[in-house]
Amino acid sequence: MTLSLPPSAPSTPVSARTWPDVLRRPTAPFGHTAVARALVRRALLGLPVRCRFGSEPASGSGPSLTVHAPDAFFRRIAAQGLIGFGESHMAGEWDSDDLPALLTVLAAHIEDLVPAPLRRLRGAWTRRRPAAQRNTRSGARENIQRHYDLSNDLFALFLDETLTYSSAVFCAFPARQESLAAAQHRKIDRLLSLAAVGAGTRLLEIGTGWGELALRAAARGARVTTVTLSAEQQDLARQRIAAAGLSDRVDVQLCDYRDVQGQYEAVVSVEMVEAVGAEYWPDYFDSLHRALAPGGRVALQAITMGHQEMLRTADTHTWISKYVFPGGLIPSREAIEEHTARAGLAIVSDQGYGDHYAETLRLWRERFTARGQDVADLGFDAVFSRMWEFYLAYSEAGFRARYLDVRQIVLREGAAR
Length: 417
Description:
- By secondary structure, the chain is of the alpha/beta class.
- It folds into 2 domains: 20-125, no CATH class; 133-413, 3-Layer(aba) Sandwich (Rossmann fold).
- It is built from 19 helices and 12 strands.
- The longest helix is centred in the last third of the chain and has 19 residues, at 382-400.
């Protein structure tokens, strides 16, 4: 098979071992491709999208969906649903002049894309999550490493100088009115204040990232224990902390959250619960409670989705779980409330700011696409670049369509279980 990648794509060789399902077009059951063709075309006709399939004239208005290889495009969707839609983009079989805008339209009309009578047959074109992605101790370590250990240099290409890989909080829109680093510091400082972190506070951070929150906490005079499953992140976080002269106040451990020892006056965990998996949410919230000293506070930052949407996707293998975040599941507010209460914790503050995540992702995506040759120079091929751009645009669209939200939540000890 020849990929339909644009001529300007970096020339790093594409490996069939790395991308078997992108290089190999799937075979759909008899008749399924024709059904997918009819359903997709019918759904798109009612949306503000400008579509062009092969040599056909373009129709409609709005962000474009230009399908270069219609047969392959519809065959992938027939065989793999939304996974096939994403893989078709990775293969260069379709493009858009405004990818996040196109995906925002699709996300906003997600319930309209399949006729109601056929939604009951959803199981016919979706697959269950692979058992290998379960977040056991060994599975969680492998899942985290598949994403966060790709390359520190890769993340440095599109993150700001704080190396913060979570939603910023901006003072105003558009976000270009201030630096991304300033907005990330505002987010971190707000979380530390919500957790009442100050001089002498014993702080536990679950999910180190590259160490910026630990640095900001230590600069306040806190004693920080921060845990991660990423060896790449641990190494660079330690280097950054040492360079700041704060190694005596910060202990960066390669440790599963379930194995954390001791109690702390404050616990902070930023966009970690999404990586835990629904099966292990009870363990995660029990670990928060066990680590919290009497009178202490937990500050969480969590991506959320609607409860019914969460239930529909809980066991589904998605494009994101296949290629970006294996083992992950975004919780609903209701799921967080349920597991918080079961763990003996109570929510005392909860604020959402999804628009800020859309802006954060826009800035990451613009930085990433501007550094295409640098990505290739790190050894990542054109399929990876298209995958990563799709991931960032797909995520941005989820927040712009309000399918997703991000929240800062404060917990304290609640009623006994």
